[in-house]
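ok trying again, last paste got cut off:
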Amino acid sequence: MEAVEVVKVFSNAVNVPNDVTIVLHKAKLHTPIKAFIKNTWTVWYIKGDRRYILCVVNHTAREVTEAEEKHNIKVIEAQLLTNLFSIVSDEKLLKSLRNGEFTGWDINPN
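nice, full thing came through this time. structure:
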């Protein structure tokens, strides 16, 4: 199962309100050392015009061959699953997600 599908299943399992969307954003940046790539995957909790970071996975590794890229994706997906399971196991956080009251890291300045 790919990470996007995992986030979709997570969103359905958490049973977030209809006005809330949970999405996965993937960013890939080249480092000064050309053989290394920094992957940043962010799970966003979006309610109306407010966006909150639910969890972030950062992974920097050598990525020259296709096999290395596939391995790195597996490592990132494993960490993402760990983070999502941590969220599900936290009753207070889970309740705030279900009630639409989550106010994680707000990126919208006042």
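cool. The chain is about 40% helix and 35% strand. The helical segments are 3-14, 66-89, 91-98.
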